[in-house]
Structure to design on (284 residues):
């Protein structure tokens, strides 16, 4: 009986001791698990920390891309500068300059007279026109598509006719001069062109004489007339095409003296006249 009770007591004691031993094990395992989990989290943090440096290369790459974009900006600025900078053509094409286009030789007839006023303010009603010859050589300098400048050298026979006590009076004045004209091409096609314009001339009196009846007077020796004559006038020019390099010139001129040609201040005389010319024009 005692043995049975002792056996039961031992079993009970063993059961109790077994329960005490088993209970701490879950806590220990839980603790160990927590401890095990803590180190397991550490790699995640390290990974997170490792990921942060991984972003750094992207930032460096982004920073590295900025200098790469700079040349594009410079190129864009350069393109913008080129686009905004006005070119010569944007300002109106190439700058116009004088260019020798053709050379002209003309000859024809002049019909000249005087604009006369005596000391009393009267005029000579007998004054008429005198016919003479005229020659000129000029150079067509183009300025753009329509404008033309023409410097020239010319020789002209000017003068007038009148009557004095039933005796015929003739003034013959031969001038050698230089001039310049401006012409504007108002009409043109493949066959012909029409150009009106203005002219200015400065002529030197080469020879002057006056004939009264059968008596002849040398005006250069008598010093009755001034040696120089300044004049201005109107031109109407027309060119007709013959070949690519040759044209025919037809020209009308009216000129009026701007200065007094007589040395006597009591009488005022100025040259005036019409000229009709025909000539050849050579394209260059």
């Amino acid at each position: 009986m005692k043995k049975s009770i002792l056996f039961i007591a031992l079993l009970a004691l063993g059961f109790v001791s077994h329960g005490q031993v088993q209970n701490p094990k879950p806590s220990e395992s839980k603790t160990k698990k927590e401890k095990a989990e803590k180190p397991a989290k550490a790699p995640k943090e390290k990974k997170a920390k490792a990921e942060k440096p991984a972003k750094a290369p992207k930032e460096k790459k982004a920073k590295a891309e900025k200098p790469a974009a700079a040349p594009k900006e410079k190129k864009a600025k350069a393109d913008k500068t080129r686009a905004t900078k006005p070119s010569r053509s944007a300002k109106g094409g190439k700058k116009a300059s004088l260019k020798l286009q053709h050379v002209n030789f003309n000859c024809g007839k002049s019909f000249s007279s005087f604009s006369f006023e005596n000391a009393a303010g009267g005029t000579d009603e007998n004054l008429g026109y005198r016919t003479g010859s005229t020659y000129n050589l000029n150079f067509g300098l183009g300025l753009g598509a329509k404008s033309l400048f023409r410097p020239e050298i010319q020789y002209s026979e000017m003068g007038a006719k009148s009557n004095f006590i039933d005796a015929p009076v003739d003034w013959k004045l031969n001038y050698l001069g230089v001039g310049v004209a401006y012409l504007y091409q108002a009409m043109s096609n493949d066959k012909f062109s029409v150009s009106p314009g203005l002219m200015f001339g400065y002529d030197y009196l080469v020879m002057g004489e006056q004939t009264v009846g059968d008596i002849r007077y040398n005006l250069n020796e008598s010093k009755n007339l001034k040696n120089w004559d300044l004049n201005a006038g109107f031109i109407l020019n027309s060119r007709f095409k013959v070949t690519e390099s040759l044209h025919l010139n037809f020209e009308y001129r009216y000129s009026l003296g701007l200065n007094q040609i007589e040395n006597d201040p009591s009488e005022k005389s100025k040259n005036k006249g019409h000229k009709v010319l025909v000539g050849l024009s050579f394209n260059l």
